[in-house]
Structures are given as C-alpha cells and as structure tokens.
Design brief:
Shape of chain B: globular
Distance between the termini of chain B: 53 Å
Structural class of chain B: alpha+beta
Order of helices and strands of chain A: HHEEHEEEEE
Helix content of chain A: 25-40%
Number of strands of chain B: 7
Number of helices of chain B: 3
Oligomer: heterodimer
Strand content of chain B: 35-45%
Shape of chain A: globular
Largest sheet of chain A: 7 strands, mixed
Order of helices and strands of chain B: HHEEHEEEEE
Distance between the termini of chain A: 53 Å
Strand content of chain A: over 45%
Radius of gyration of chain B: 16 Å
Largest interface: A-B, 26 and 22 residues
Helix content of chain B: 25-40%
Number of strands of chain A: 7
Largest sheet of chain B: 7 strands, mixed
Structural class of chain A: alpha+beta
Chain lengths: 155, 153
C-alpha cells in the first residue's frame, strides 16, 4: 500500500476534481458564464462535443459558451455517477460522469442526457480541464421524449 | 496543514455528505418530520423562500409533517455536492430533483440547495437550509408551459 502522504494526496486530488466539475455545472447554470467557464480550462484545452462541435483553446471555447448562453435560457446540470482516477504525482487525472440536464433551448423545454470523459490537469494549486469529451445520448423536446425524437436540431 | 488536519478535512466532507443524504431521505414520502428536524440545531432555520421560513426544530418538524398529509409520494434525488469545511463549521451546495405527487398529479421538480452546518457534540447539525426552486411542473406540461405548480393546495 502507498504511504500515508500519497494516499491523502490521492483523496485530495479526487475531491479537487469533483469540485472543478461542480463549479463547471454551476457556471453552466448561470447562463453559461463564458469568462468563468473558460477560466476552468487550460490554455490549450479541447472541448469536444461530437455533433455539438470541437473547440480548442480559450478563444474557441469562450465562443462556444457565448453561443450556448444565447440559445439556452435555462439549464440545470445534474452531474452524477462519477468515477475519477489519479496517479502519482497527482498533477493529472481522468474522470467519467453522467449528466441529466433539463433545459430551455430557444424557448422550448428539452431533456439532455450525456456522459463525459474528461482529462484534468493541475495548474498551480487548481485543477483545470485539459479535455472534455461530451457524449450526447439524447437531446429531446420535453413533449416528445427520447424514443420519438432522440436528437432535435440545436438551432 | 498537517497530514492529520488534511485527513480530518476529507473525513468531515464525507461526514457532511452523509448527513445531507440522510436529510434528503427523511423528506422522501412518507416524510418523517421528527427525523428531519433532528438533523437541525435547536435554533436551525429552514428557508424555503416562497414556501416560508421555519425557525427551530418544532417549526421545522411541523412543516415537514404537514407535507405528509399533502404529498403522498415523492423522492429526493440529491447530488452534486460542493462542501467546504472550516473547523467545526461547514457550508454546502447541491442539486435536487424531485418526483412528487401533488394533488393527484405527477410532477417533477428541479432545485438547488445550500446549507450551513455546525459540529455540535461530535455531530454535524444543520444550522440553515435553503433552496431555490427552478421548476415544479406537472409531468404532462414541462417548465416552459408551467414553471411552478401550486404546492400549497
């Protein structure tokens, strides 16, 4: 078994990464606060949402959040069911999360279901996103549900 | 910070998470007002905004027991905790998703919560519990057509 210092560092890293993801959720819910969200990413980070687009670096990532803040007038990001892996020297890590998101998009109530595969990097004392892969499983009008309309157009 | 203090912080985060999960479970139907209020300090406050502010265990228990008569079923899915420990005090925020039967109709609710806690006689007690209701809508409508249903009828 690893020594006590290493065991504590692992648990602190997991808790720090958990807090990063919850901060991300809270800022998404605050109308996708573009500067606040962008600051959670490393300078060279990638946010890759598949059909939602791939955005690399702070400028592109901020632009993505600015677009989201116009289309999504309400959202609650329920981040659940996560696993986080970190290894010595605890300056990077990976995580898998589920998200359940009720939202209002262009005036319409929708449900979004997705999973995340993230890569994290420690910058100074703070954890940051190095890569976010958002895997969209359904994005459906509230009235339709994911069987009738699993993926509605974003615009 | 010493390694003992760092371990204590991690242990207290987990302990607070456990207390808040227990609070959520006691306000699932059939609503156990005594158990719910028992997680609060004697002078604890529950601030439900549009649904009122309740101060002290007796008032909190009375409100929760009153819910038992009005809401025959609900579940509180609480997660997404962010917990900070400062000695014997703690703050927490988290998300809630609820599935109540209100007036014979299925509803879904989206909320965020916040709390302050204090360690009293070795136990984390809630000194203040707050919530922001984002929607509480009939299942057949959704939050755009009806954001908040009447929960007091």
């Amino acid at each position: 078994m690893a020594d006590l210092e290493e065991r504590v560092q692992r648990l602190e890293a997991i808790e720090g990464i958990r807090r990063l993801k919850i901060r991300y959720a809270q800022l998404c819910d605050a109308n996708y606060d573009p500067p606040g969200l962008t600051a959670l990413f490393t300078e060279d980070a990638v946010w890759d949402g598949g059909d939602l687009g791939r955005y690399e670096g702070h400028d592109q990532i901020r632009g993505f959040w600015e677009g989201a803040s116009k289309a999504f007038t309400f959202a609650l990001h329920y981040m659940i069911g996560h696993t986080i892996d970190v290894d010595p020297p605890f300056t990077s890590g990976t995580g898998h999360w589920y998200i359940w998101e009720p939202a209002t998009v262009n005036g319409r109530a929708v449900f979004l279901g997705a999973t995340y595969d993230d890569v994290y990097q420690k910058v100074g004392d703070n954890w940051r996103f190095k890569q976010v892969n958002a895997n969209l499983h359904f994005f459906t009008p509230y009235e339709d549900g994911w069987v009738k309309t699993p993926m509605m157009p974003m615009d | 910070m010493s390694i003992e203090d760092r371990i204590r912080t991690l242990e207290e985060i987990e302990a607070v998470r456990r207390v808040l999960a227990a609070v959520g479970a006691t306000c699932d139907a059939p609503y156990d007002g005594a158990a719910f209020a028992g997680h609060f300090s004697e002078d604890g406050v529950m601030d439900l905004m549009e649904m009122g502010v309740y101060t002290g265990r007796a008032a909190i228990q009375e409100f929760i027991d009153g819910m038992r008569a009005r809401v025959p079923f609900t579940m509180h899915y609480w997660d997404g905790y962010a917990i900070d420990i400062d000695g014997d005090e703690a703050t927490a925020t988290w998300y809630g998703f609820e599935t109540p039967n209100l007036n014979g109709t299925a509803h879904i609710g989206g909320l965020t919560h916040d709390a302050t806690l204090k360690k009293i006689d070795g136990c984390w007690m809630v000194t203040r519990l707050g919530q922001e209701l984002h929607f509480m809508t009939p299942y057949d409508k959704g939050w755009v057509r009806q954001r908040v249903a009447d929960q007091t009828a």
